UniProtKB/TrEMBL annotation:
<feature type="domain" description="Zinc finger DksA/TraR C4-type">
    <location>
        <begin position="80"/>
        <end position="107"/>
    </location>
</feature>
<keyword id="KW-0479">Metal-binding</keyword>
<feature type="zinc finger region" description="dksA C4-type">
    <location>
        <begin position="85"/>
        <end position="109"/>
    </location>
</feature>
<dbReference type="GO" id="GO:0008270">
    <property type="term" value="F:zinc ion binding"/>
</dbReference>
<dbReference type="InterPro" id="IPR000962">
    <property type="entry name" value="Znf_DskA_TraR"/>
</dbReference>
<dbReference type="Pfam" id="PF01258">
    <property type="entry name" value="zf-dskA_traR"/>
</dbReference>
<keyword id="KW-0862">Zinc</keyword>
<protein>
    <submittedName>
        <fullName>TraR/DksA family transcriptional regulator</fullName>
    </submittedName>
</protein>
<keyword id="KW-0863">Zinc-finger</keyword>
Amino acid sequence: MDNIDPALVAEALDTKADELRARIEELTRPPEAGATIGFGKRIGDGTIQAVQQLADSSTAESLQRTLNEVVDARARLEAGEYGRCVVCGEPIPAARLEFRPWAATCVQHAG
């Protein structure tokens, strides 16, 4: 973590967290009053809206997982543990942290 500026990392993580929260809020907003959602024998606006809501729900879940990773990275930064793999403790390569600042593991332990 020698060449990593903690202030810049904190700013990047905070910005990403704000973006994710805004997108999750947008995707989980309840349908407008009077909107009909349903699955039936015929494809119509209600079916299309229901399918879209299912897709949005799945996207929101994925974004929430990423938000959790970002929040955890921010906590590691505050604790002085940022930039080290949570599995083996070895430094996470700078290129990986640049690409994904919330990375918790080295490449070997990712996945």
